[in-house]
Amino acid sequence: MDFAHDGATLALTERAFAFVREHALPAERVLDEQLAAHPEQWGDWPIVKQLQERAREQGLWNLFLPGDPEVTGGAGLTNVQYAPIAEATGWSPRLGPVAFNCAAPDTGNMEVLNDFGTPAQKDQWLRPLLNAQIRSAFCMTEPAVASSDATNIGTRIGRDGDHYVISGRKWWSTGAMNPEAAVFIVMGKTDPDAERHRQQSMILVPRDAPGVEIVRPLTVFGYADRDHGGHAEIVFDDVRVPADHLIAGEGDGFAIAQARLGPGRIHHCMRSLGTAEHAVALVKERANERHAFGRTLAEHGVVREWAAESRIQLEALRLLVLKTAWLMDTVGNRRAMTEIQAIKIAVPRAVQQILDRAIQLHGGALAEMFAGIRSLRIADGPDEVHLASLGRAELRE
Amino acid sequence: MDFAHDGATLALTERAFAFVREHALPAERVLDEQLAAHPEQWGDWPIVKQLQERAREQGLWNLFLPGDPEVTGGAGLTNVQYAPIAEATGWSPRLGPVAFNCAAPDTGNMEVLNDFGTPAQKDQWLRPLLNAQIRSAFCMTEPAVASSDATNIGTRIGRDGDHYVISGRKWWSTGAMNPEAAVFIVMGKTDPDAERHRQQSMILVPRDAPGVEIVRPLTVFGYADRDHGGHAEIVFDDVRVPADHLIAGEGDGFAIAQARLGPGRIHHCMRSLGTAEHAVALVKERANERHAFGRTLAEHGVVREWAAESRIQLEALRLLVLKTAWLMDTVGNRRAMTEIQAIKIAVPRAVQQILDRAIQLHGGALAEMFAGIRSLRIADGPDEVHLASLGRAELRE
Amino acid sequence: MDFAHDGATLALTERAFAFVREHALPAERVLDEQLAAHPEQWGDWPIVKQLQERAREQGLWNLFLPGDPEVTGGAGLTNVQYAPIAEATGWSPRLGPVAFNCAAPDTGNMEVLNDFGTPAQKDQWLRPLLNAQIRSAFCMTEPAVASSDATNIGTRIGRDGDHYVISGRKWWSTGAMNPEAAVFIVMGKTDPDAERHRQQSMILVPRDAPGVEIVRPLTVFGYADRDHGGHAEIVFDDVRVPADHLIAGEGDGFAIAQARLGPGRIHHCMRSLGTAEHAVALVKERANERHAFGRTLAEHGVVREWAAESRIQLEALRLLVLKTAWLMDTVGNRRAMTEIQAIKIAVPRAVQQILDRAIQLHGGALAEMFAGIRSLRIADGPDEVHLASLGRAELRE
Amino acid sequence: MDFAHDGATLALTERAFAFVREHALPAERVLDEQLAAHPEQWGDWPIVKQLQERAREQGLWNLFLPGDPEVTGGAGLTNVQYAPIAEATGWSPRLGPVAFNCAAPDTGNMEVLNDFGTPAQKDQWLRPLLNAQIRSAFCMTEPAVASSDATNIGTRIGRDGDHYVISGRKWWSTGAMNPEAAVFIVMGKTDPDAERHRQQSMILVPRDAPGVEIVRPLTVFGYADRDHGGHAEIVFDDVRVPADHLIAGEGDGFAIAQARLGPGRIHHCMRSLGTAEHAVALVKERANERHAFGRTLAEHGVVREWAAESRIQLEALRLLVLKTAWLMDTVGNRRAMTEIQAIKIAVPRAVQQILDRAIQLHGGALAEMFAGIRSLRIADGPDEVHLASLGRAELRE
Predict the structure, then answer these.
(1) For the complex shown, is ipTM > 0.90?
(2) pTM for the complete prediction?
(3) D345 near A CB under 8 A
């Protein structure tokens, strides 16, 4: 048993953290200006391009993608090695991940293409995504149903000769307002009568396919999130794509979604820890600066209590995230599902609590962080669904 | 001991609730359209004027103001009688209170003028406020200090012959972006060397006084809140106003602020309960409609648990609010300070928790409600300051 | 709406509270000595008799029993009027209630006899109970089943000519170790095939009936509770009693149990509040006496926070208890079931939390109080069952 | 980074766990019988001796003691290696640790002697302790003061020629009722005027020294804990011991106490995890056996939620304990103080919560476990003191 990162990881983390501190965080104000100057724009921000170029030069690029770098074009880090780097990017949720081309939902989409894509699909979509030439969206959630139950999906993907025809309405498709998002991975049903988890398939839909209508942007806890392409409501109205746009086979959609979720969830958790550490650092700074009732805030009992509780939660949960990463590395994502579920529930909830208390001390400046974390708790099924599932497994004899 | 409202109150509440249900809530979509059509506008919304006119016709007007209606122009309700009406308006935080001319910060400002204003001040400002001809703002919070400690206030109000000269920077001045907000009540120090709670004074500053600069709008948890005039950063740069614009005497600012806070806080609590009840009703509706894993959401144990816990919290806290109102009515605001402090801490916190869990079931549609309630927990001093104060009192021998 | 108790209630409460403070609390040490001197004895403590005699002289007797005093022999208080008196007795859970002949389970048993007993049953058992000449037990819980589901009851009550024959095993029969407990009210099934809630009946079983075997005393959270007769495991081995010992009719057992539970639960809640107030008072005293790290404990932020949170919880929950009492008085126990369920869940849980934190400050001296309160949370069905039931009702359309 | 235990540790853990399951847990009933048969006896239980003999034969002996086995007579395990073994013993808090001669307070006392004892002290006391020929107690806590502040200690250790004279009153001296406890380590002040943390010294006091009076047994949350020697109040009335009984030098008491606390705390945490796992296993078994409302308890949502939450807490906290152990092994106890403090706060609190909820499902059978864990939260200073200290460190710039 060894709780130390290897030397290469420590060095890379240091580099990543320095980048975030020196480049990403200061760039947030630049991004604000660019956002303010172009109130109708949803992507293609110059500052993002600059950061990406600089990060790529420093070898801080596509670090999320495990596997042989020769094959994947990634960096070949294990999940354990990637963890502290992802955490570093979480200090600037707006610019850290995207600077390293490690931002959701592109990461998940790249993984899907990497794991399940045909050579042609990889050529057409994975390569430009790995180069940040295009971006992508993942179209899963639908209006008016409990999306945590995959059998509720209403979008249809019907075979018609050499094509599939897609019809349905999706929302909260993150990133899809950004015109750079050239491709959507859409989840729909190819066979509603099949066995519960074989009804669904996934298909690649180019943004410019006829019948794709970006209806409107939605806000997440008050934020339009124009930084990264927002959250779109999209109608697919008899959209025809060639049959080779299907990912893997018919009925594989649920399995691909499950495969995609593991890394996606742990990456969110890793970054969330960084966000929480940033909040702790901001509070610490302010608590030592400001005075109330004759003492610094840092000398008030309740502030100390907060700092201690935050530290305990972060240390324990970071270890749980790392152990989960280690399991994914050593026994595979499938056998780490219980742990993935555990961190998916526990980390955003704890980080939300930490941020909530930080806001009491530091004020509304942390509200955007809060909204980002808060949304994770319903992003792919509310916590409660995962708790019930984890509990069922735990009680199974 | 009697837990029933009197008949007149029940009748008025029913009327108020019907108004909110039939007019205010459906009008929210109209307001959204007006907001979307005028993205640079911060007030003067036609739908608000229409609601106000209709509410006034129905006698649902200025119900917040206690005291003899002949003198105050209010309705002469006790706090206990106003409580269920305020709760009804809380079902539509955006349009309920303003429809009845019972929205913060105007209510607090009207109370200050009613209780401490000279006849001339009442003529000039209270009368048009009671008629909703103008609106107002309250300028208290300042950047970069712990505002919960009143000795931290940096704004200066200096006497200069027949005038006072005001200099300072305020932010989170709610409503001040709205050009209808014709007057600001500004808290500043007239004598920084006086005893701790005699340093501050309050003064009326017309919006159009030279030197008043509305710097920019701030957002609260992601929301600009253009509905009701947003939250402004304001610079007062050697603003000169006649000496008779001072409210009460020099050094009375802290005492006025305290007097203003009692009713302001309990009104927020009353409305918050209505907001929570609305969220509970929305969840209930959805939980019976939607299915997951073969049952309605209402049949899932965790949803029942949520519903039960919410009901318990709301029933207990409503009673605490009502008892506080009853104390204010019977022994006065000053002797109800402990109870006011208790509800100020407990109600928004519980309602936030109820909304947080409601969001897990009902999704982001409740996010704006959440942001509104969340902001109450730091609005006039973070909960923690009030907890410490309440605890000190409780432990005093 | 009126939150003040009437004058008579205030006066009686003052009297009751003075008695508890001056007689019951100081008598606890005497009881300890009597317990230590007679380690095998389970009741008939001289100090209890003395307190009862004195309380009865002062008119502090049977105050729990509502209804016409001429008929019931009680004091004819409403539930609202009894609430603060019961709270006073809760300051000394060991001696307060029993001194006033208001201790569970006798109170519940007296209510059952008062409401459902025949004149002969009242003569034989209710009269001596009202005079504290005998005590009683209630035999409901059984080993190895989830007793919260009444259909799980295994004890049989079979008709045999002019008699009923009772067979079964009960445990946690509070008070039954005390030889003064002359009669047991036993819940069993007369018809296992009847409709779910018509299977059960209740019957009076004299302690000395052949076949009644007191197997052993059980402890509750480490306490044998010899003060009040402990908690017995009892075997009923073909116990024959005359048929007129049945309470009400066959199949009425569940309904009687439900009727018994309402008052029983609210009385527990009332007393619990007093126990919590006592703990708060003890902590307050100690926090002002003791020093750590250069300040009194009362000056530490975390102690203030505790005191404030305890105060908020107690004030809110007391009001919920009082409102429930008022509903029982005005619309009847049946229509107050939701509120009774709410306080049954919320009050012991909050008081446990208050005591848990008090123990951090005051040490193990509060452990017996803690055990008493803790046991309420599983006493007649765990909280979780009540939460689910309350939630189901709340979500019903 | 590696989350796997080494093979030797896994094998030893399996052996330890098998012993606990096959010998210690079944022996609890035997111990109950021996306790019942000798109600005045406080130690020297035959079943304990038998278990110890058997465990020693299996090499499950003194595993807690790190360092070279040749020198210490221990097993030379690292803290990381000992962790899962200690956890296994925690499944039977009453008999697991003592069977392996790894029970508090002897472990801490052996460590003190091992680290700070003179050869003569080791010969006289450490050797028989390592052989379980005698037991010991640690006399630190005093009545009527906040013991978490070491300057509050009132016991005096005065030099008088070749002797020290000890005077003072201690309580909650765990194990001291057991006549086998042949030696007490007593904390007192040798120089009340010295610098804050140099006032205290520790000294070895033989049980049979004149002036040592065992006043009475105290209970911990209702339990006398006769299993392991209970908790004694002790008066030291001018007790004279030779000067060479002092441990290390005058003024070293605080430093020794700190050194003793690290391992003591982490051992408690390790065992607590095992206790919680045992409770989870018991609940799981029962939840699958019992039915309520037409389903097994395991199928109820609230039970699943409990199981999931317990699992998450246990996994995260076990990792934090292991990391702390690893830090102690690699950088030393002193530099692991923050982590030790963190687990000292977090683990017993979480385990208490897990047990509290387990009791709702499994009933009072877990009450003794609960009492044991609960007492840890005040055992060497209440959580709140440690939280404040941890928070202070965390906020230090």
Answers:
(1) yes
(2) 0.94
(3) yes
